[in-house]
């Protein structure tokens, strides 16, 4: 079930805000009845019409982008900064990112127009691993990495257990490259975890999302997910297992 204005927006009829106005103006019907309330949810079995014309469902689109730094993980930005959807001028469907990557973080991000799929992957109860490589100030001792693996106390609570591995260190520059795998989706989580441990992040990249990686892609490159990959992501979110 999705909010009516979201369904209208996904059909490419109007933006979310304009879709809300269409509802308030009484120009939308659900199963033959005029709807004027925002927040009503509909399913794929409901017949939605705008100005008497039935909605045509868009074909589902599933994309993987190697997001550069300095790009907003959003479908629009009121400050006119570069956004992830700018990399897909050829896509007619109304796509949006699954979750987010910070403005200064590069790496793998998914985009789709399939709201059910996006909600499935982002729901807190589904534990999908995401692996990051962080360049941090200083050289964290093994004890610090062990602490991060067990969980770090942040202002919004303890983080879930993580996998942490030192990849390299530079004693001269006093910097380290650390790999960390988490399944939570808190804002700026990886940066906040290292900051709490006294080793601020200077550069961050998401290398993997579940079984997906960036192999063969350069910054700004993208590709479509295969039907098999989409099926496996659904299975992973719903059962925690992938069967290849």
UniProtKB/TrEMBL annotation:
Coiled-coil ranges per UniProt: none
Entries under CDD domains matching the protein: PseudoU_synth_RsuA_like, S4
Ranges where the RNA-binding S4 domain occurs: 2-59
InterPro entries: PsdUridine_s_RsuA/RluB/E/F_cat, PsdUridine_synth_cat_dom_sf, PsdUridine_synth_RsuA/RluA, PsdUridine_synth_RsuA/RluB/E/F, PsdUridine_synth_RsuA/RluB_CS, RsuA_PseudoU_synthase, S4_RNA-bd, S4_RNA-bd_sf
EC number per UniProt: 5.4.99.-
One Pfam family cited in the UniProt record for this chain: S4
Gene Ontology terms, MF aspect: isomerase activity
SMART domains reported in the protein's UniProt record: S4
PROSITE patterns on file: PSI_RSU, S4
Family: Belongs to the pseudouridine synthase RsuA family.
Protein name, entry field: Pseudouridine synthase
Organism in which the protein naturally occurs: Metabacillus sediminis
Lineage: Bacteria, Bacillati, Bacillota, Bacilli, Bacillales
């Amino acid at each position: 079930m999705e909010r009516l204005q979201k369904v209208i927006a996904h059909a490419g009829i109007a933006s979310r805000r304009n879709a809300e106005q269409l509802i308030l103006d009484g120009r939308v019907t659900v199963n033959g009845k005029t709807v004027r309330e925002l927040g009503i949810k509909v399913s794929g079995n409901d017949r939605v019409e705008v100005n008497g014309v039935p909605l045509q469902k868009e074909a589902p689109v599933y994309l993987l982008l190697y997001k550069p730094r300095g790009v907003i993980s959003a479908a629009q930005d009121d400050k006119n900064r570069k956004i992830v959807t700018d990399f897909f001028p050829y896509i007619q469907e109304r796509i949006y990112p699954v979750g987010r990557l910070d403005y200064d973080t590069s790496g793998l991000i998914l985009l789709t127009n399939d709201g059910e799929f996006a909600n499935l992957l982002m729901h807190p109860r589904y534990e999908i691993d995401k692996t990051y490589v962080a360049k941090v100030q200083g050289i964290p001792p093994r004890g610090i990495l062990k602490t991060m693996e067990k969980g770090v106390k942040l202002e919004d609570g303890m983080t879930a257990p993580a996998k942490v591995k030192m990849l390299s260190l530079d004693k001269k520059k006093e910097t380290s490259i650390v790999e960390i795998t988490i399944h939570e989706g808190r804002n700026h989580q990886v940066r906040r975890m290292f900051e709490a441990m006294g080793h601020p992040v200077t550069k961050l990249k998401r290398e993997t999302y579940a079984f997906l990686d960036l192999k063969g892609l350069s910054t700004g490159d993208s590709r479509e997910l295969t039907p098999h990959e989409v099926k496996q992501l659904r299975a992973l979110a719903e059962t925690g297992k992938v069967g290849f």
